[in-house]
Amino acid sequence: MEGSNRRDFLKTFSLLTGGSVLLGHVPLVNEMMAQDTGRTVKLGIIGIGSRGKYHLEVLEMIPGHEITCFCDNYEPHFERAQKLIGPHARGYYNYKEMLEKEDIDAVVIATPLFEHARMTIDSLDAGLHVFCEKAMGMNYQECNDMVEAQKRNNRILHIGHQRLYNVKYLKALEDIRNDLLGKVTQIRAYWHRNSDWRRNVPSPELERKINWRLYLDYSRGLMTELASHQIQVANWILEEVPECVWGAGSINYWKDGREVYDNVNLVYKYPGDTHLVYDSMTSNKKYGFEEQILGPKGTMELEMGKKYKEFPPPAPGIIQLINDLEQRFFETVPIGGASWVPENPSEDKGDYIIDEVMESDGSIMQMEAFISNVKANKIDPWLIREGFYASIATLMGHEAMMNNSIVYWPENLAL
Question: Is the pTM higher than 0.70?
Fold first, then answer.
């Protein structure tokens, strides 16, 4: 997307997907097709840590907006923001003061999880549109309150699930809807790292401020930081929310005073008895991260961007070889050998979901869509539901592990 505009993107997108993508699942395309009003969106940024800094870099590639103010109460981040954005942007240490004083259209919130709900609600109540990083809140009530604030103020609310705008995922979704895999019978997803997640602290009193991800007062650990992305994908693929979830979590490696698990394993049960089997860990990175979609006709690996047939056609000459092997097998009866033959993995090398890969995980297109929505004052209820349902399911998994119980989809939700 760097250096391109809306029309360039749409042309490229059409070529990659054969022009047949399901537009109902690609709100970005409809948003970007709209005529640019020429209006400049005035933005405020709240939180300039690692993710906030990334959003600033993304916004540099997108036209039609101006960052007029920012807020961060950690001095190194405040100073960095001023350098990155420029002297024209006014800096604040208190986000409420920024909301009161600044004449802006929207905010981008990239703060620690425990601040998402109050900052989002206050921003919506101030009449602003909001892009907030995932997950939505620390508990079901916070997520509900955020949605109620969106309804009350009739403002845009986007949650940072960028796979909704990843071309590989969009084309895969179309293929799945067109029965390429048959009925999706299982989804396997994992996110493995080998790092302690801990950041250097210049002074002991800043431990929880800087390493907030490690403490339950501020974070839900691997579930809200990583799993929320992949649970959103499962909900999206299945067009359902899970009925229930069970699992286990532990701190089995990083014995450093952290309170959140470094190893989680969960099973989500969806209507129709399809399961999402999920695990995440921070002490081994061999398998990286992936979402595997399985059905009787084939498999997709979405991060890899590949699809595999369950019964690929044999290579030339292979049928004769199989016949020869079978003939020798039945003519010779082994004595004392194994009573079973292991299932060997498929040798299908697979095909790419799209012929060439756009170098973006969807973050640029997602922010582009947010800016376009703000210009058009267009609310997409589908996007709100995706963010909300993924956040609820993520918190269900956390609750199941903490209480060692089966947790069912909660009642009386805002959506």
Answer: yes
Sign of CA dihedral 217, 219, 221, 227: positive
- Same domain for 127 and 225, yes or no, is no
Three-class secondary structure of residue 287 per DSSP: coil
- Residue-wise pLDDT for 65-77, tens only, equals 999 999 999 999 9
Tell which residue, 90, 4, 112, has the closest CA to residue 45.
Answer: 90
Checking 264-269 for CB contacts under 8 A at 24+ apart, the result is 264/221, 264/222, 264/223, 264/227, 264/397, 264/401, 266/227, 266/397, 266/400, 266/401, 268/231, 268/234, 268/242, 268/244, 268/393, 268/397, 269/242, 269/243, 269/244, 269/245
CATH number at residue 148: 3.40.50.720
Specify whether 49 is located in the same domain as 179. no
Cβ contact 9:31 at 8 Å: no
In this structure, the answer to whether residues 170 and 307 fall within a common structural domain is yes
Amino acid identity at 3: G
Q: Are residues 142 and 250 both part of a single domain?
A: no
Is residue 345 within 8 A of residue 8, CB to CB? The reply is no
Looking at the structure of the chain, the number of domains it has is: 2
Cα angle 205-206-212, degrees, rounded to a multiple of 5: 125
Quick check: 42 and 105 in contact, CB under 8 A?
A: yes
Q: Encode pLDDT of 187-226 as tens digits.
A: 999 999 999 999 999 999 999 999 999 999 999 999 999 9
Q: Which amino acid is at 66?
A: E
Range of the structural domain that residue 111 is part of: 6-162+361-379
Inter-axis angle of helices 381-403 and 140-153, to 10 degrees?
170
In whole angstroms, what is the distance from residue 89 CA to residue 102 CA? Answer: 11
